[in-house]
Known about the structure:
Elements: E1 10-14, H1 21-31, E2 35-37, E3 41-42, E4 57-58, H2 61-69, E5 73-79, E6 83-88, H3 89-97, E7 101-105, H4 108-117, E8 122-127, H5 131-140, H6 146-160, E9 168-171, H7 175-190, H8 200-205
Parallel strand pairs: 1-7, 1-8, 2-7, 3-4, 8-9
Antiparallel strand pairs: 3-6, 5-6
Bound molecules: guanosine-5'-monophosphate (5GP).
The site of guanosine-5'-monophosphate (5GP) has 12 residues, from strand 5 and strand 6.
Amino acid sequence: xxxxxxxxxxxxxxxxxxxxxxxxxxxxxxxxxxxxxxxxxxxxxxxxxxxxxxxxxxxxxxxxxxxxxxxxxxxxxxxxxxxxxxxxxxxxxxxxxxxxxxxxxxxxxxxxxxxxxxxxxxxxxxxxxxxxxxxxxxxxxxxxxxxxxxxxxxxxxxxxxxxxxxxxxxxxxxxxxxxxxxxxxxxxxxxxxxxxxxxxxxxxxxxxxx
Length: 210
Ligand code: 5GP
């Protein structure tokens, strides 16, 4: 009898704004077709260049709240107390069942919720080479006022406090290395006994079970 197909790995990637997690995600997805990105829903307005269904699914507050009531989200939250952000549940479940890995790029509080709801999720934190580098990157964006940079730096420090709750950390200094490291994490996670239905028959013969 053929063993069940292994479920994919649910990977949550977070890190302070300015750390370059979006770039790490993009490069990871380009190199690994079995890794699928979960597109979040949000009530915030699209920024120039953002596309519906690619960057986010853009919703009104009413639409979003109807989705909450229908249980459509794996997790959701009111980030910055202004806008809802949430992970649509159906796509995540479909991809995992199909054996694909799924990548969630969400904030630290959302990550903690996912960990509670899906204990086998793998939490990866993207760390800057130093807090000084992070501050320089935030200033370097040039799109924000000094006050906004100060606020984001404070938020970055607050987010870093949750680092001990994560399973892995990668330093985003050289992009290639950071992506290699996420791939290594995924490979190791796929070898975990709990993700190995291919070993079921082997265990049965040995008189044990998974
Ligand atoms: P932005 O508005 O800059 O695109 O995102 C703001 C914050 O919301 C980021 O920290 C981002 O990671 C987070 N975020 C995006 N999608 C989700 C989601 O589905 N759930 C949660 N909890 N946070 C999200």
